[in-house]
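Narrative of accomplishments. A recurring question from our advisory board has been how the design workflow behaves on a single, concrete structure rather than in aggregate. To address it, we present the structure tokens for one chain from the evaluation set, followed by the sequence designed for it. No filtering or post-editing was applied between the two.
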């Protein structure tokens, strides 16, 4: 019997009552293992290649643990799982149809790979035993070695060859995706095996996952930690590059304590989740997708750098605020501070994509999780400085210098904000600043799950882990809506306010995700930063035109999304999400955001379309 879950219940989806039973069909084993692994949700778009599994999830598991999240594109389904894992630290599943669904999902799987986020992708194939194939479609949807299309950007892909082999394969997938560095895995289930009736005389052995401990992550070698502590404590201008550096409050607090003990400047990267309080005096820049002038001014002074899961250390040290404009970043050796690099990335180097970046000239490299390393470093640095009054004094002087510089920066940011506040069309400082103001006393409960590539300084502060979840890993447009909804799903019922500020191009590419938020009653606020253009690429065309002495006025051709403009609020409404806007007048933002935040607090997804300046 299908029952509608009462409004406000945790799962917010139909659950089916079923009696506890032993697996009868091959796919019941998969469903049973998902339950045993504690998978809370699977995001999916249906397909006959996993109709066996679909039946087991509904009629064997009762559509709980995992519950289905219905998506209208596989790219969105995997994006939902990606966002969920980022917000909760727990993986969920995504189920994709044989070959075609997996092909749709590839970009999102790549994103999760680059972002080091665990996602359990389950798929299917028509029967390997050709005598079991239905005419036509099972042949079209059978492929040999299907996982090879995602092999280069998953930690493991596999197709178990019997029902009895499924439990072990699922255990392997689980522990592999959770071992550091984390990442997505793909398991492909033969439709013939899913639909195989099990022989009651030969029961399948079902393991208790608790008996298979996950591997404990490596610890940083004490000698290496001591060396780095010496390097930092002895430096005259140490700098911390805080990348994916603090998942937990403990890690966050340790990093703050380390920076304070050293009087070190801290730089963050907007591609990475929040790791350091942006309103701290030692935070010496705006979190940016690339370094701005303030960022490089700090780096230019560094004589020792500690990089913590930082994306492209060599490129950063060789770069400048302008380096994105041209080709080739590095004047190699432009900056040569002493460098300590803490990253697990050496264990994720593969050949197909180059997200390993250039080899940085690190004096010490530590392949251990950042939080454990920072915790150990903090103890060592404190020990060094306890016996070194001159060192302590230097750290304190740096702290004062950074405080003064931070006050200068804040004055610059405020001046820039004031200058642009009244501009029409609305500038980013205004539409972000107004939202921060509208949040008011709710600021400590907001989690910014996605944001535009450019971020205004001093307009919004991150003060706890999860305050901002970072970018998508692979820089794939269309990832925003799914990831935002997945993060909001993880945060549902936790008293948080998930907010995603997404580009109009990003939303348009995956707009059907809005329906999923409406259908599953997932509260979140989506702000469309609507410049009616693929603006990032207009800017590129302008640069190329300038370099070539060609007319920059043509930069918009093949980039603009007007004539007709997209009515995002109308689109949202059509998909069951409350739509507000377009808001063209910046003075109307406060009211629009106020209304939207009330709706989110009442448990509804809402979209605000904000018309913004093209720049
Ligand atoms: C799948 C994919 N297609 C194309 C691109 C190239 N690209 C990078 S940013 C961008 C523009 C995105 O437009 P929008 O979301 O409106 O943001 P805006 O640049 O206007 O702020 C494009 C097309 C990409 N990164 N990924
Ligand atoms: Mg745009």
């Amino acid at each position: 019997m299908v029952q509608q879950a009462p409004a406000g219940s945790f799962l917010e989806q139909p659950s089916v009552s079923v009696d506890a039973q032993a697996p009868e069909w091959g796919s019941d084993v998969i469903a049973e293992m998902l339950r045993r692994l504690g998978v809370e949700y699977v995001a999916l778009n249906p397909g006959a290649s996993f109709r066996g599994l679909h039946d087991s999830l509904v009629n064997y598991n009762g559509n709980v643990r995992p519950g289905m999240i219905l998506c209208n594109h596989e790219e969105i389904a995997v994006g939902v799982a990606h966002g969920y894992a980022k917000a909760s630290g727990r993986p969920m599943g995504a189920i994709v149809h044989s070959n075609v669904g997996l092909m749709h999902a590839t970009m999102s799987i790549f994103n999760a790979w680059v972002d080091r986020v665990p996602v359990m992708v389950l798929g299917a194939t028509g029967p390997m035993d050709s005598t079991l194939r239905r005419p036509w479609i099972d042949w079209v949807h059978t492929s040999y070695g299907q996982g090879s299309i995602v092999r280069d950007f998953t930690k493991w892909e596999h197709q178990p060859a019997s029902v009895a082999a499924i439990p072990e394969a699922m255990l392997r997938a689980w522990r592999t995706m959770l071992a550091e560095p984390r990442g997505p895995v793909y398991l492909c289930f033969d439709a013939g095996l899913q639909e195989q009736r099990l022989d009651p005389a030969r029961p399948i052995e079902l393991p208790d996952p608790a008996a298979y401990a996950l591997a404990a992550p490596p610890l940083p070698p004490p000698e290496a930690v001591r060396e780095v502590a010496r390097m930092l404590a002895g430096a005259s201008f140490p700098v911390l590059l805080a990348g994916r550096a603090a998942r937990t409050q403990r890690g966050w607090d340790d990093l703050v304590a380390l920076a304070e003990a050293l009087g070190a400047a801290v730089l963050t990267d907007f591609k990475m989740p929040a790791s350091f309080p942006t309103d701290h005096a030692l935070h010496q820049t705006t979190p940016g997708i690339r370094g701005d002038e303030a960022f490089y001014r700090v780096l230019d002074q560094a004589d020792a750098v500690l990089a913590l899961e930082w994306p492209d250390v060599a490129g950063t040290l060789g770069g400048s605020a302008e380096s994105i404009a041209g080709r080739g970043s590095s004047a190699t050796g432009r900056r040569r501070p002493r460098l300590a690099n803490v990253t697990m990335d050496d264990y994720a180097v593969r050949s197909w994509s180059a997200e390993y970046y250039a080899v940085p000239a690190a004096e010490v490299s530590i392949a251990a999780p950042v939080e454990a390393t920072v915790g150990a470093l903090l103890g060592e640095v404190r020990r060094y400085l306890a016996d070194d009054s001159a060192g302590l004094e230097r750290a304190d002087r740096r702290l004062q210098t950074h405080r003064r510089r931070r006050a200068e920066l804040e004055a610059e940011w405020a001046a820039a904000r004031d200058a642009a506040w009244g501009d029409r069309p609305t500038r980013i400082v205004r539409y972000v600043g107004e939202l921060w103001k509208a949040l008011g006393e709710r600021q400590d409960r907001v989690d910014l799950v996605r944001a535009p590539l450019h971020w205004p300084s001093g307009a919004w502060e991150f003060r706890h882990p999860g305050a901002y979840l970072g970018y998508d890993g692979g820089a794939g447009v269309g990832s925003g809506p799914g990831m935002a909804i997945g993060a909001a799903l993880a945060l549902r019922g936790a008293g948080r306010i998930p907010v995603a500020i997404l580009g109009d191009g990003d939303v348009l590419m995956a707009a059907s995700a809005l329906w999923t938020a409406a259908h599953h009653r997932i509260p979140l606020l989506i702000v469309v930063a609507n410049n009616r253009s693929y603006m990032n690429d207009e800017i590129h065309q302008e640069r190329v035109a300038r370099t070539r002495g060609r007319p920059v006025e043509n930069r918009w051709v093949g980039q603009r999304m007007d004539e007709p403009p997209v009515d995002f609020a109308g689109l949202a409404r059509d998909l069951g999400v409350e739509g507000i806007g377009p808001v063209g007048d910046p003075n109307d933002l406060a009211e629009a955001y106020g209304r939207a935040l009330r709706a989110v607090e009442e448990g509804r997804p809402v979209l605000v379309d904000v018309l913004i300046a093209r720049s």
